Amino acid sequence: MYEADGPDSGPSEDQVIGWAEHNAHADDAPEQDGEPQPVCPHGRDAECLECEDEESYARNLRFLVGQLTDGLSTAERGIRLAATAVESLTGNAVYDIELAEGPEGSDARDDLQAAIRLLRNVNRIAQWRTGLLDGQK
């Protein structure tokens, strides 16, 4: 872990990249109330005082947008897995009659498809933001 050597010292680029790679997994992120919390590239909270200069701020912003897109991708994979399970339960192989013929099965399919669409929309916004950070319009 990085420790400050003085008031103007900061982490090296290798330390920042190393922490970003380490923190790319939600299980490794610090938790509060059982939920992973975003941290700055220094391994501190998102309000780290060392991130106040512009370059560090931009690096921190890219890092947090990366966490957003990673989390959205993970959520979409989970919802797709759930949608596949519902399709299997209502398909010919298993055919859970209550789920297949009742309104719950139809609601589950529709809600999961809506959730996938919402996640894709938020992911597009995050990717748009990443493009702005990289100087694209």
How would you portray this structure in words?
Helix 2 packs antiparallel against helix 4. The N terminus is likely disordered. The chain is an all-alpha fold and 137 residues long. The chain contains 4 helices and 2 strands, in the order αββααα. A two-stranded antiparallel ribbon has the order 1-2.
**Distance between termini?**
36 Å
Which parts are unreliable, with pLDDT below 50 for 5 consecutive residues or more? 1-29
Structural class: mainly alpha
Largest sheet report: 2 strands, antiparallel
Read across the widest sheet, the strand sequence of neighbours is 1-2
List SSEs in N-to-C order: HEEHHH
Task: Give the percentage of residues in beta strands.
Answer: under 5%
Radius of gyration: 21 Å
Summarize the amount of helix as a percent range: 55-70%
Please tally the β strands and state the result. Answer: 2
* Count of helical regions: 4
Shape: elongated
Mean pLDDT: 75
In brief:
The chain has 137 residues and is mainly α. Helix content is 61%, strand content 3%. A hairpin with a 2-residue loop joins strand 1 and strand 2 (35-36).
Blueprint (SSEs and pairs):
Blueprint: H1 13-23, E1 31-32, E2 35-36, H2 54-90, H3 97-101, H4 103-133
Antiparallel strand pairs: 1-2
Helix pairs in contact: 2-4
Describe the structure using short key phrases:
4 helices, two-stranded antiparallel ribbon, single chain, disordered N terminus, mainly alpha
